[in-house]
Structures are given as C-alpha cells and as structure tokens.
Specification:
The protein has 218 residues and is of the alpha+beta class. The chain is 21% helix and 27% strand.
C-alpha cells in the first residue's frame, strides 16, 4: 500500500485522495492512528485539499497554494487487471466495474470449463458471500488452488481465510479475513500503545479483524 511506500522511499509528504482507501477499509480509528505515526516520523499529511495541476518542481493546489517537490509519485487506489484479451475473445465474460472477471465460489466464470483467480478475478467468499478482489498474495494462491481443484470437478469452494499484514515504521499489523463494508467496530486493548485487536462487524456478525503482530520489527 502507499503508506508503506512512503517510508521505503523516504518521502516527506502524503496527499490522500478523496476516497482514502485505508479509511474505507479500516475506519477512522485505525486510520488516524497510522497517520499520526507518519506525522510523528516527519511525514507531512495534506488532507481535504484539491490538486489543481502538477508543475515541473511543484504541486499546485486550488487556492493557489504550492508545494515544492523534488519528485512526485502517484499511487493508485486500485490496480486494474490485464483482462483486455478476454474482452475481445469469442466468449462473453461478465466483468465488474474495474475490469475483473466475475467468478463464483468455485472460481468458475460464466463460461463452462473456464476459471479465473487472483487479481484478474472478482471472487465471492464462500463463508460470508461477499465479493473479494485478489489483492493479497495468500488469497490469490488459495484461489488458484481452488480453481485447480474444480478443474478436476471436486466442487471445492474458496473457503480459506484471507490474511495479510502491513508494516508502518516498525509497527506490524495483521489482518484476518476481508470485508467490503462494516457497520460496527469493536476495539480491545490500547490503540496508543499499539497493543490492540479491532473487530469489524456487519449485521451482527464478525467479518474480520486487525491487530498487532506479536513479534514486532525492530
């Protein structure tokens, strides 16, 4: 994610887009905690500011304010899959708005004996029926394995729990499951001490969790 790239590339400023994907995924509590950590490490955060144009050595905001820059790196909020070849094929696949091929729980497309998995597929997670895009290496691996099973007609749905982790200036967070939306957040532990688990709920069910990894990176 772009927040990890900030520290790796030793950038000094961050301008979140209007959607702020981190907040959409994790809510304001965790987002504010992570952004505060970046500010503490000397990163300037520019929020709620509209960009008017880019110049050779600066960014011009609406209102004529300028930010001098030695380099400008744009991080996309999502990655578009390379599925153009499927759009012009003889088969009429069903795509989502981002161009991913829609598949069912078994990684099957709507074309018989054709499967899709990973970042090119919009998969439905068997345990809660929610849509999932392959943006996690572990999930992509399991989806590919699920497709292989079902090429052998074993009728095995994608059921493994997706998980990933992110490292922010030595603070490691691990995420279990994947959720497109939530209507409840329950926090156990101490956010300020980075010793917590955050549970995300939807319709009175826990759909995922984020917490501190027990072994921190020094």
């Amino acid at each position: 994610m772009s927040l990890e790239n900030i520290q790796t590339l030793k950038l000094t400023s961050l301008i979140p887009n209007d959607e702020n994907q981190f907040q959409v995924q994790y809510g304001p509590e965790l987002t504010n905690l992570v952004l505060d950590l970046h500010v503490e490490k000397g990163i300037n955060i520019y929020e709620n500011i509209k960009i008017k144009k880019f110049e050779k050595d600066s960014i011009v905001f609406k209102g004529k304010k300028k930010l001098k820059s030695d380099a400008l790196i744009l991080f996309p909020s999502t990655v578009s899959p390379k599925t153009e070849f499927a759009e012009v094929s003889d088969h009429q696949f069903e795509f989502d708005n981002a161009g991913r091929v829609k598949v069912d729980y078994f990684q099957r497309t709507d074309i018989k004996r054709i499967f899709a998995a990973g970042s090119c597929a919009h998969t439905y997670y068997y345990t809660n029926g929610t849509g999932h895009i392959g943006d996690q290496s572990q999930a992509c691996y399991n989806q590919g394995m699920t497709a292989a099973y079902n090429m052998l007609a074993l009728n095995v749905p994608w059921h493994q729990i997706p998980f990933t982790c992110t490292e922010q200036f030595g603070k490691v967070l691990q995420q279990a499951s994947s959720w497109p939306q939530f209507d409840e957040v329950h926090i156990e532990g101490d956010l300020k001490e980075w010793d917590f688990i955050i549970y995300y709920g939807m319709n009175d069910f826990v759909v995922g969790a984020v917490g501190k990894l027990l072994l921190q990176i020094s």
